[in-house]
Write a structure and sequence with these properties.
Elements (H helix, E strand, L loop, with lengths): L24 E5 L11 H11 L3 E6 L9 E4 L3 H4 L2 H19 L3 E5 L3 H11 L3 E4 L6 H10 L4 H20 L2 E4 L2 H11 L6 E3 L22 E6 L8 H8 L7 E6 L4 H13 L6 E5 L6 H6 L3 E4 L5 H4 L4 H9 L3 E4 L2 H6 L7 E3 L4 H12 L3 H17 L2 H17 L1
Parallel strand pairs: 1-2, 1-4, 2-3, 4-5, 5-6, 6-7, 8-9, 8-11, 9-10, 11-12, 12-13
Helix pairs in contact: 1-16, 3-4, 4-6, 8-14, 12-15
Length: 405
């Protein structure tokens, strides 16, 4: 049984004035292509936000298109992404970078952590690690769901956990997205509670905002899902719920990429239920095009099951739905309850329950114009309270605290 404790993460760090400027240098190690914003939303906005406040040097194998940051491109994205060889190369470059540019702090998102930890230890340059998920629990959970858990994989993840225990303890600060995940990291890796800062995900309300789109001539109820298209996301429940429509007037729009095998499985399910014409797969859509897609829809859905790894998450899509003011139907799980109030700003259904989901859709479909307008106002208010500018103030203040010791 896991140890129970009260987590006391930093929650008021953003209350002071953010005074980072170009004299402060943050080197961000970014081994993912965050120009794919919809996939790496938090990493993109944190990197962009910091680069607009201070001098940011980006160590990356990609052309990330951030004009406000100084790019230090390391060769061979394939090579860098191979854990053993990649970390040796990255370690060598970070040592050179530390001597050449003398940054005030290192910052990583998920990857490159062992190299950053070693260089931080050798040079004394503090290091902040930003983790949106548990390093091993999520992968192990999905392996169990697939029936692919084995003794060798369990041993491998034990080794990874041992490495991360040392890695996290070397960091000056840990940023994560929820109190629940902070508690999980503290239990797994012995991180001190005052080293963890919880910064939930957010939305850019200047990009995501409601627009006037006339739907008077529309004869369908259009439901949209934005996010990863995988077997773990509850999309099969959405498709089965759609089949309950006696009038064939609901259409599900699935926006996002994922493994081809999972997409084929979902398309096959729609075909088996004879509703292929009412389930539309968009594939990946650029981040700046998502608001236009949302504004053409009637209802947005977040059907995440109650997996342990989802219970500790912070779903970006909910904030994006709120900013546009579209009615939200979502599962009754912790991260949704943390943001929404059932019947006021969201409508909850039981995970994996197609009948419960369909009842929510029918309920919203009966709303009149005044009810929808009031819902949009409540939604927009929550979104504006959770804008990326607010989150970046917290992270900037944390960076400043780490620099100042």
């Amino acid at each position: 049984m896991k140890e129970e404790f009260k987590h006391d993460s930093k929650s008021n760090i953003g209350n002071k004035t953010d005074t980072l400027d170009e004299k402060n240098t943050v080197t961000i190690i970014q081994l993912d292509d965050i120009s794919i914003v919809q996939e790496y939303t938090e990493a993109y906005y944190v990197t962009k936000g910091l680069s607009e406040r201070c001098t940011v040097r980006l160590i990356t194998p990609f052309d990330l298109g951030l004009d406000t940051a100084v790019h230090h491109k390391i060769p061979g994205d394939t090579l860098v992404q191979k854990p053993l060889i990649g970390n040796v190369l990255l370690l060598s470059y970070l040592l050179y970078h530390s001597l050449r540019y003398e940054p005030d702090v290192f910052y990583t998102h998920h990857r490159g952590n062992p190299s950053a930890a070693i260089v931080s230890s050798l040079t004394g340059i503090p290091w902040i690690v930003d983790h949106q998920f548990h390093p091993t629990d999520q992968t192990m959970e999905f392996l169990r769901i697939e029936g692919n858990e084995s003794a060798p994989t369990s041993l491998l993840f034990t080794v990874i956990d041992t490495i991360y225990t040392s890695v996290f303890r070397q960091s000056a600060a840990v940023v994560t997205v929820s109190e629940e995940l902070a508690q999980s990291l503290q239990v797994s890796y012995g991180i001190e509670s005052d080293s963890i800062t919880v910064v939930p995900l957010a939305v850019d309300t200047t990009v995501f905002k409601p627009t006037t789109v006339s739907r008077e001539s529309m004869t369908t109820t259009d439901i949209v899902y934005i996010g990863s298209v995988t077997m773990y996301r509850g999309l099969d429940t959405c498709i089965r719920a759609l089949a309950r429509d006696p009038h064939d007037e609901t259409v599900l729009h699935i926006v996002g990429g994922g493994p081809e095998t999972d997409q084929r499985r979902l398309k096959r399910l729609a075909a088996d239920l004879d509703i292929s014409d009412r389930v539309i797969f968009y594939g990946y859509v650029d981040h700046d095009q998502i608001p236009a897609v949302l504004n053409r829809m009637d209802i947005a859905v977040s059907p995440l099951p109650s997996h342990d790894s989802f219970e500790v998450s912070s779903p970006t899509k909910i904030y994006e739905y709120l900013a546009v003011g579209i009615p939200i139907v979502c599962t009754n799980i912790t991260p949704h309850r943390r943001i929404l109030t059932d019947g006021e700003t969201g409508f909850f259904f039981d995970p994996n329950d197609q009948e419960s989901l369909w009842r929510c859709i029918e309920n919203i479909s009966s709303f009149d114009g005044k009810e929808l307008e009031e819902l949009q106002e409540r939604s927009r208010e929550i979104a504006e309270e959770n804008d990326w500018s607010t989150r970046l103030s917290i992270i900037s203040s944390l960076v400043e605290d780490v620099i100042n010791g």
